[in-house]
Design goal:
The chain has about 100 residues and is mostly helical. The chain is built from five helices and two strands; from the N terminus they run αβαβααα.
Length: about 100
Amino acid sequence: MLARALGQMKYGSSVASVGLAGGVGLPTTVIPFIIRGVNLLGIDSVMQPYEKRVEAWNRLATDLPMDKLHAMMSTATLAELPQLGRDILKDRCAQEWWLT
């Protein structure tokens, strides 16, 4: 999923990545980085000092476009979660909000 997002970003865009739900591999080339100037930003959510975490949450509260947040939300039953998880890991998400 990360490789796909990197390959479809606009010139000069940045992608922030956290977690390893899809694994540690990154099957991509250097093209997004060299030709389009895409930046990959890793987020260390474990060792960040408390003050920086509070600052990040405050920025999210004020800077996050709520319309985009609502567009990527959906409701599922507990019974649907296993299939949704498999779909996410196989990159079969219907919503491609990360590309807009």
